[in-house]
Write a structure and sequence with these properties.
2 domains; alpha/beta; 7-stranded mixed sheet; Quinone Oxidoreductase, Chain A, domain 1; 10 helices
Length: 298
Amino acid sequence: MRAVVMRETGDPSVLRFEDVDRPELAEGELLIDVRAISLNPIDWKLRRGAMPRELPTVLGSDVSGTVAESRAEGLDTGGDVFGFATGAYAEQAVARAAMVARMPHGLTYEQAAAIPVAGMTAWQALFDRGGLKRGQTALIAGAAGGVGHFAVQFCRHAGVSAIGIGSGANRDFVMRLGASGYVDYTSEEVEQAVSDVDMAFDAVGGATTSRLLAPIREGGILVTIAGEPPEEAARERGVRAELLVMSPDAERLASIGELVASGEVRVEISHELALADVQRAHELSESGHTRGKIVLKP
């Protein structure tokens, strides 16, 4: 089969489309004929060498496709699944059965592949960690991005008011997703534009993280996925600041898939590219200016 192999860390040129051996299955695993893959920032961070990883390796985790071989009960060959795989940048990938869900009727392969990391991260940040309830308000930095655009829509679905932060070019897009307000960071200071929110969700990092503390009410929480949480500064303001590392959950993944299949939540796909164009896909993702998700197709 063909896969994108990384033999060294570096710029996108280290990603090479090559012939490789088909992966072997262990008990409880599936071999998936990959139909679509989506990129996540962790992919290019790993490519850069930000975290140790044994080389050579095949990157990627978000996948949708058809079960080609199964060594797991309850998931037979021929069924369509989506979820978290090992080495998803390939024509075939291995996944633990507990890390995938059956694709609901009406969900496309492209939509399904875009959901796992971004959708699960948004849900866990807002509700599992943030504890948001109907009638509360969330401030979402990076509201037009892969994680952020899910977060805005999950808030709307749950009866939570969402205030997005992003560039002026994305204001209309985020408002159409269901945001109740928007802050253009290029012309407004979020500390002056917003106050008394129950939660701030940081999908951007850098200087943005600490700026999100001021609008949070006493007793509220800042959840970040993009860097070290400013815990001491948060305590001084009477709020909490926590880092979220997403945990895969097949049951929740399935419920998010149903929301997308029903039309309640939309998946914004900014680019669909061939897997052989993975270098270009990484360049686009690293730019930080794409809406929603980038999807690759073998």
